[in-house]
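DM from R.C. (forwarded with permission)

"hey, sorry to bug you on a friday — could you get me a structure for this? deadline for the figure draft is monday and I only need the backbone to look sensible"
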Amino acid sequence: MTRNAAEAGAVAAPAAGMDVRVWDPVVRLFHWTVVTGCVLNLFILPEGKLAHRYVGYAVAGALVVRLIWGFIGTRYARFSDFVPTPARLRSYLAALAKGREPRMLGHNPAAAVMMLTLMALLASVAVTGWMTTLDAFWGEEWLEDLHGTLANGILVLALLHAAAALVESWRHRENLVWSMVTGRKRP
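My reply, with the result:
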């Protein structure tokens, strides 16, 4: 492994038959809570009804837990482990464009930016959804439109995130979706 790859958090070639715990239960529970909540609220539950609101509050609660866990959690859950500097992001994107991006155990810099963006959108959807229940904003169409637009932004980015996970799984010969179920990846 080159020095730049080591500095970027890349990992060495895998040892046969071994794996390592990367995604702890809090990270995985957050991920699948958000996936389930977004599917329910975007496609199944009627907008603005009680079930829609409770699912939104559950996702907001999971987001609060994940934000706290980003400071006190396990290694790969901590923001300090994966939030990239601009230089590190540029370097990773340049390597990605050449098809030579390093494989990483935790979030790569592009995935980290996607995760942070999705978390910001989740927070914005939660706040605007809650605001629509307040007397001060009751029936405000601009707020409902903003809430819907932000939710649709989550959908678009989530689809891009899923596609990127599939492409990265193929490129690095590992099942990233399954690793978010088991919490384990090859070293």
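R.C.: lifesaver. The chain has one domain: 19-182.
me: no worries. The domain at 19-182 is CATH 1.20.950 (Fumarate Reductase Cytochrome B subunit).
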